[in-house]
């Protein structure tokens, strides 16, 4: 397993467990407050780790960084959080699995350097069935909530756009940490106007609670600073399509974490869903690797 796959896996493992921290923080913080604080902590951490100023080689690159910031930071999390107030979390969980599909289509038409293969679509369908089983876990309570579900779909499309833009940014040759920090800067900048629309307050006294402090730093340092760097690095190494496939694993990580931390029961539906999700991931990845091996053999024979 190369560094790109390891980076993607690390990212997904952490992102799959963040729901616990977010759930705890929502007792004392609003969604917009959590979002703002975590990315401020993230940009400060990245500035400390790599304190070198980014020298933009082309002014047009600022447009890409700004687009990545508004898509991957501001819009995605705002749309997802608002969607959760209108529809069930299980709906959002299933809908989020569409990200790799959107990413593949956008990458194919925009970047034109990652071909679409039939195994990707087969794996997508298998994984989607698995994620559906995991999300609803045997309870047949799927309800269509037009506004909430449309917002969730919009969030997945925005994240797919972010992934494609990140792949484009990776071709500019900037350091991954510097590029990620620049994306955070624009994300926070676009987030500031929304603070006045929601019930935002600094209220630092809430961080005097060790539990709140730990979870906020986990989201800021782990889910934001570290994960955005590792995700962007994975996109740089693997491409937007192959990296996005790892999103299938988020519900699996969530189920395992909930079982260990929250002591939630592991039902046969969740087990079957996990198996199908992993199978879908395997199908999407295996033939791509096999194709590369075939090309290598053919080149050696020639």
TrEMBL record:
Family per record: Belongs to the EamA transporter family.
Cited InterPro entries: AA-Vitamin_Transporters, EamA_dom, EmrE-like
Coiled-coil zones: none
SUPFAM superfamilies reported for this sequence: Multidrug resistance efflux transporter EmrE
UniProt keywords, alphabetically: Cell membrane, Membrane, Transmembrane, Transmembrane helix
UniProt-recorded name of the protein: DMT family transporter
Topological type in the membrane: Multi-pass membrane protein
Keyword Transmembrane listed: yes
Transmembrane segments: 7-26, 32-50, 62-79, 91-111, 118-138, 144-162, 183-202, 214-233, 245-262, 268-284
Domain EamA: 3-135, 147-283
Keyword Transmembrane in record: yes
Record localization: Cell membrane
Main subcellular location: membrane
Pfam families: EamA (PF00892)
Superkingdom of origin: Bacteria
GO CC annotation: plasma membrane
């Amino acid at each position: 397993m190369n560094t790109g796959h390891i980076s993607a896996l690390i990212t997904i493992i952490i992102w799959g467990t963040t729901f616990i921290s977010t759930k705890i923080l929502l007792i004392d913080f609003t969604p917009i407050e959590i979002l703002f604080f975590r990315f401020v902590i993230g940009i400060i951490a990245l500035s400390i780790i790599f304190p070198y100023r980014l020298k933009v080689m082309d002014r047009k690159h600022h447009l890409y960084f700004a687009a990545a910031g508004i898509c991957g930071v501001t819009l995605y999390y705002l749309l997802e959080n608002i969607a959760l107030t209108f529809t069930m979390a299980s709906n959002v969980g299933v809908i989020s699995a569409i990200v790799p599909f959107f990413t593949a289509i956008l990458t194919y038409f925009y970047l034109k350097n990652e071909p679409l293969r039939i195994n990707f679509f087969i794996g997508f369908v298998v994984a989607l069935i698995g994620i559906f089983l995991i999300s609803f876990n045997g309870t047949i309570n799927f309800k269509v909530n037009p506004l909430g579900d449309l917002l969730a779909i919009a969030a997945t499309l925005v994240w797919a756009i972010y992934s494609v833009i990140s792949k484009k940014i990776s071709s500019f040759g900037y350091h991954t940490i510097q590029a990620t920090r620049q994306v955070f800067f624009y994300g926070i900048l676009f987030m500031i106007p929304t603070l006045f629309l929601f019930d935002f307050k600094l209220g630092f006294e809430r961080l005097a609670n060790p539990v709140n402090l730990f979870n906020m730093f986990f989201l800021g340092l782990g889910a934001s600073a570290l994960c955005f760097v590792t995700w962007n690095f994975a996109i740089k190494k693997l491409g937007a399509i192959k990296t996005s496939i790892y999103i299938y694993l988020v519900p699996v990580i969530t189920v395992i974490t909930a079982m260990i931390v929250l002591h939630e029961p592991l039902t046969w539906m969740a087990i079957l869903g996990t198996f199908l999700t992993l199978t879908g991931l395997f199908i999407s990845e295996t033939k791509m690797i096999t194709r590369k091996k075939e090309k290598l053999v053919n080149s050696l024979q020639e």
